[in-house]
Amino acid sequence: MAKIITLTNQILRQKSKPVVFNKETAGLIKELKATLINKEGKVKGVGLSAIQIGVAQNIFLAYSKSSKKLLVFINPAIIWYSKILTAGIPETKNKYEGCLSVPGIWAIIKRSKSIKVKYQTSNGNWQVRKFTKMTATIIQHEYDHLNGILFIDRALQQKSPIYELAKDENDKEYLREIKLT
What we know:
Elements: H1 23-36, E1 47-49, E2 59-64, E3 69-81, E4 85-87, E5 97-99, E6 102-107, E7 110-112, E8 114-120, E9 126-132, H2 133-146, H3 151-158, E10 162-167, E11 173-178
Antiparallel strand pairs: 1-2, 2-3, 3-8, 4-7, 5-6, 6-10, 8-9, 10-11
């Protein structure tokens, strides 16, 4: 299990490099899974890019709601975006997007409802698949990581409010709007 890199580390702003398949590729996939899912099987998040554990390679994991599995994306390219946008994460009660590398911060991000992705699987085979709704949102978020883009950059670009988790005087959690500069 690797340590997840957070916002202040400039590696998150780097563009990742293409993956050249070798013995380390399977180990990196295993490391990403071990970082995202603890020994008890509890999931920390719905996606994780290699850059978030300090490896600048084009690889990420994304949860598929339809298959209920973590999918592996290697050297991905989003080759088509639908013009229809979502406002927040589809198929969830909590529409706010967050990130393991930006803990405690949330925003509603507009993303394409459907996308087509060309990518390699963990065995190196190329495929093209269409993804929709929640899975499409997760893939777009992780794909941004490969290009040094964070969800808060998207929020600022879209002029969406950004929130942090706070507690009131009764210790009840709520989202408080913050300004990033």
